[in-house]
Amino acid sequence: MSNPETPNLKVKSILVSQPKPETEKSPYFDLAKKYNIKIDFRPFIKVDGVPARDFRKDKINIADFTAILFNSRNAIDHFFRICEEMRIEMPAETKYFCISENIGVYVQKYIQMRKRKIFFGDGKMEDLIPYMLKHKTEKFLMPCSDVMKGGFIGEVAKHGIEIQQAIMFRTVSSDLSDLADIKYDMLCFFSPSGIKSLFENFPDFVQENTRIAGFGSQTHAAIQEFDLRLDVPAPTPTAPSMTMAIEEYIKKVNK
């Protein structure tokens, strides 16, 4: 990294590269109030759906698949959007494998769960492999974005399970030009795409005293790849969430 020394300066303003929480009960608001700091929210990336006419070019016949894997709400939204645009109605016996119970519950927006078979993981796609092994005869389809990593697909393939990725949405950088003259003491990132967006919007960005917080190993790697200094890593054994990691840091510097 460009500079291993983290500035020991107070943090009075933070920009979180995600949408503003929909509920006032968010720990970010608690953090802002507790330490009297300004926290703003701005998505650095946005999701664009792949039009059905473009999806057809991949020659993936959704009706051929008997099981669908979901790892996000975006995947669910765009899968059923594509189905609607292509006038495809999934059979009642279709099985759904979801990365977490929350994602599984979200599927209810589109289907009646009592008529379907849904399996939940505990937050990691790898959690679903034991369930998939019990249903090896199914043909699995995984709706995903264009930045989906292939590690999980490769792991599943090792078990002889038939699985196909289907790119149904793309992650693109947001227009952040209105932030050009606004400075924050800390920037918080949650994906490599967020770091990429920063430099696509501000190619001459120099970190200097700006603290950078990053969540997840892939985000940490991207921060290093762009020669930035990672000041607030998360998760850690003592700070499993981004807000907890930020609070640990603020306690040290805002004395």
Low-confidence stretches: none
Main sheet: strands, sense, barrel: 6 strands, mixed
CATH hierarchy class name of the largest domain: Alpha Beta
Query: Which range best describes the helical content: under 10%, 10-25%, 25-40%, 40-55%, 55-70% or over 70%?
Result: 25-40%
Shape: elongated
- Termini Cα gap: 27 Å
* Rg computed from alpha carbons, rounded to a whole number of angstroms: 21 Å
Beta percentage is 15-25%
Order of helices and strands: EHEEHEHEHEHEHEEHEHEH
CATH second-level architecture of the largest domain: 3-Layer(aba) Sandwich
The largest beta-sheet arranges its strands as 3-8-7-4-5-6
Class from helix and strand fractions: alpha/beta
Could you tell me the number of beta strands?
A: 11
CATH T-level topology of the largest domain: Rossmann fold
Number of alpha- plus pi-helical segments: 9
Number of domains: 2
